[in-house]
What we know:
CATH superfamily of the largest domain: Metal-dependent hydrolases
Structural class: alpha/beta
Distance between the termini: 18 Å
Helix content: 25-40%
Radius of gyration: 21 Å
Number of strands: 18
Low-confidence stretches: none
CATH architecture of the largest domain: Alpha-Beta Barrel
Number of domains: 2
CATH class of the largest domain: Alpha Beta
Shape: globular
Mean pLDDT: 93
CATH topology of the largest domain: TIM Barrel
Amino acid sequence: MPETVLFVNAAVLDTAAGVLVPGQRVLVRDGEIAAVGADVEAADAKTVDLGGKTLMPGLIDCHVHVNAHTAELSGLGDESPAYVAVKAAIELREMLHRGFTTVRDPGGADFGIHDAVAEGLIDGPRIFFGGKALSQTGGHVDMRPRGRSVSDDHQCCPGLGLVCDGVDGVRKAAREQLRTGAHHVKIMLSGGVASPTDRIDSTQFSLDEIRAIVEEAQAANRYVAGHAYTARAINRGLEAGVRSIEHGNLLDESSVELFLEHDAFLVPTLVTYRRMSIEGAEYGLSQANLAKNELVLDAGLRALELAHNAGVNLCYGSDLLGGMRRHQLDEFTIRGAVVPAADVIRSATVTAARLLGEEDRIGRIVPGARADLLVVDGDPLADLAVLTDPEAHLKLVMQGGKVKAGALD
């Protein structure tokens, strides 16, 4: 059961304003934040004196793949779903212990792993899942080598995607994902690094196909997330109603204008390209995949700076594969080179919550929000390294009012 806790002498991180407010008291009751202020009292609560430490909302990563325990994605679909689920459970627990209390999985996670976390069968971040990502034949999640004709797109196959073509085909594929309770539909708008037969600079799906998928998602009061690198691919998606663009490393000023016009979201995932360049081969990436990685590696930081300066909605994403997922927090460091700390933190809290449609429930310490809380030793606004070294700085992880790591002293 969630505990009734009164945190006192807390420096509360106001993620919306980007300021640290010292001398605050925060009351947690029934899994929610009941009150915040300098004079909050509660006789029935356990009092925890934070001694001036920072109390902040749990982090949100908007682009993870919990099934991707290897970077060699072409073989993932042939593995036992049970084995992949166990590996995913281990990774989810590690994500939670890094401070991520919510994640969005835009390819791979399904209703089963979502329900297992929601029911408390395994510890992990709250999951917003998209089911299988949709790809055209020869697109980014068509993992067949050139000589193979058949594919197994069974729902329980632990691969990350589903191949579909034509307006009728993509409508049915989108409806199948939404039928399982998916929170969004992920589509491939361009080529990608880890796929075997497509080019980074390709565009994928016809405009009619994209519009059909968007129409199905909107009919279900959901949205479409689109994988895209080039400005051409990004702009096609935004013009057709895609709500969030994943990666976006090669965007330009025309893309920025469309993001602002449509109030769309960009989810950069810079850390994955850096780690793939360093250790991708160790975790299964081919030389051809590594060559494609070089095409987007350096451009991502420039795209992030351009989007930030223009006021585009930016969300935190990592997109790491296999053993590289241990670097999930390094995205803070990379972004901090060109973006102020307060804005980097917003991308992993306030803005991410808005993309998920949960702006009143997560990402801020306000009455009525879920009690997803971190206690950190230090000021992350002054030094983002406070967030990137959890062993040294992360003292407590609370999710829904329950302590998941650390202890209430």
